[in-house]
Amino acid sequence: MGDSLPNLRRLALHANKLSGPIPASINNASQLSELILQVNSFTGPIPSFASCSFLTLFVLSENNLTAAPEMEFLSSLTNSQYLQVLQISNNPLLGGVLPNSVANLSQSLEFFLAQNTSIRGVIPSQVGNLSNLIELNLFGNQLNGSIPATIGDLKNLGRLALVSNNLQGSIPLELCQMSGLAELYLSNNELEGPIPECLGVMQRLRVVEFDSNKLNSAITPNFWNLEDLGGLNLSSNYLSGQISSQIGNLKAINQIDFSFNLFSGDIPSSIDHCQSLENLILSNNKFGGSIPKSLGNMKGLTKLDLSNNSFTGLIPKSLQDLKFLEYFNVSYNRLEGEIPNGSRFSNFTASSFVHNSALCGEARFEVPPCAQVEGGAKSKSVDRLMKYILPPLFSAMVVVIIVVILIRRHKLVQGRIPDSTSLGNSWRIISYIELLRATDSFSETNLLGRGSFGSVFKGIFDDGLNFAVKVFNIELEGGDKSFETESRILSTIRHRNLVRVIGCCTNMEFKALILPFMSNGSLEKWLYSDNYCADILQLMNISIDVALALEYLHHGNTFPVVHCDIKPSNVLLDEDMAARIADFGIAKLFDEGEVIIHTKTLATIGYAAPEYGSQGKVSTSADVYSFGIMLLEMFTRKKPTDDMFGGEMSLKEWVSEALEANEINQVAAHALLSEEDRHFDMKVNWMISVFELAMKR
Fold first, then answer.
1. Largest CA distance in the chain
2. What is the pTM of this model?
3. DSSP readout, 395-421?
């Protein structure tokens, strides 16, 4: 084939039923850029590709290919200096060893995927030379030795998977140098020693799986600061100590598995702050104390396994409120009292409750029936409380409230300078005088921007803290309500991709929120200002940050929050270019069971979902629609209200037509795509993925 097609640039035969060896003559196709042969039945050794110096994609996964012990084909690929993807997963390479020559692979290499290939030996220390790797996957091989410290040089690595090998030694501290690491999979090895304390500062971590090793430390305290961690599996180790009350900081956590360890102490009641948690597995440890009632607040919990511990006391009735609970196990503990029988508990069997001290309940649980408790005396006490004690107590409280209101009103009449108050326990108490001094009396030189219901100014406190103050124009219709809405919502949510509140200053005549100063301004500035220009990777990261924030607002709280005005000017960027959603002035906090509400407050034209603009229907889907429009705007640098859009043509239709015509480079922002860029094709594929995602809503 290579002899007859010397100018062949792309060979894609994937997902067929081809068999036999890969012809060695393909090496003669020296112009070959993409070789894609995965999901076939090719056999025999992988030939040399020493002449294919223009290769960018080398994908041979899911065949029956073999290699010589020295894996010469890998060494031959060192001539391919544009190689971006090397994928040989799921081939029986018959125990080949990774050669030291991997250090000479292309500096453009971003994906090295070789899971389930029977590779043996050690991971060469030279792997640290592949400085642009995004994913290194060596899952399911026969690797031994230690994880080389040089792996910490892979600063751009987002996913490291070394699961199911025979790796030994400790987890190297150098892993913490990988600032972009999001997913870390080290399960099913023979690693020992402590969990590195420095992992707690790696704020990009989303998944950590260290299960089935020999780790033997407590969990370092700063590990609980990983607010965006979605999955944590530490099962089947020798870990000990107690679970910190700071576990409630893991707002985005979806899975926690600490089973088969030596953990002790109570389950902190603050665990109910993990509102995204679905699976909580703490079985086979030394936990004790009572099962916290707060577990009943975790509405999304589907699996709860507390078996084989030393829990005492009652099974909380609050667990009956877990409407999605599918698996529940408290067997082999010291529990007593009645087994709840409402809601999902009607689906559980006796095996969930065996070997406890003194449980009682229905016969199907194979426990004794509960004794009847007389309630007459208790009822009389309650009647007496309601009849003789509560009325005078209530009256006294009313008198106190009236007196406080009169005193405050008297102070207002005497001096018209607004007082300060704090709407949240952690908010800073800031006086009106402090704000005047810090903002130079709200001068125009400190003005950062104006919105529908007020203005934002920059200020500096006496202690040197830079801040932004949002002053609401309460004389405008809706201004007062906007302040109340934003205060209420911002005091109940917390996420690294949402703007937080430092404090407030509020009175009948003045209302303001004190916010952190975002040194990089708004996303809108980075899209349209001549002095600022975000590249494609920065925009991708910003998109992910906004998506994480919306996921938290919609699904990470007991009641969903709909922002109602997602657009570039409401996305602020901190000093690290991390995005934070701001301006909750027209947001809606849904009550239990609500999925759609109606409003008369309109969002920004061009970003509002059709049902929002025409019928005033607000839902989480409306935010998703606005997010999709914003994605299109970010990567086209075209506002949805641009003059070119009108009548039948909209921003969405414009991009849709380009997708259908396979002319995405015609709509993508010129600053993001350049045909001279050696990564042009890869970036086009990124763009297509983003645009297709945006079109989903």
1. 102
2. 0.59
3. HHHHHHHHHHHHHHHHHHHH--SPP--
Q: Does the pLDDT at position 306 exceed 90?
A: yes
Q: Choose the CATH number for 428-516 among 3.10.180.10, 3.40.50.970, 3.10.20.600, 3.30.200.20.
A: 3.30.200.20
Average pLDDT over residues 464-479: 82
* pLDDT mean over 114-123: 93
| Catalytic site positions | 565
* CA–CA dist 435, 280 (Å, integer): 46
Which fold is adopted by the domain 523-694?
A: Transferase(Phosphotransferase); domain 1 (1.10.510)
Give tens-digit pLDDT for 30-61: 999 999 999 999 999 999 999 999 999 999 99
What is the token pair recorded at 539? 């925009």
The fold for domain 1-190 equals 3.80.10
Residue 79 has phi, psi (to 5 degrees) of -80, -15
Per-residue model confidence as pLDDT tens digits over 481-530: 888 888 877 777 778 888 888 888 887 788 888 888 888 989 998 998 87
**Structure tokens, 231:** 């999955």
Q: Residue 647: left if φ>0, alpha if ψ -120 to 50, beta else—which one? A: left
pLDDT tens digits, 255-264: 999 999 999 9
Which of 271, 373, 378 shows the shortest CA–CA distance to 316?
271
Looking at residue 647, the DSSP 8-state letter turns out to be: T
Q: What is the CA radius of gyration of the chain?
A: 30
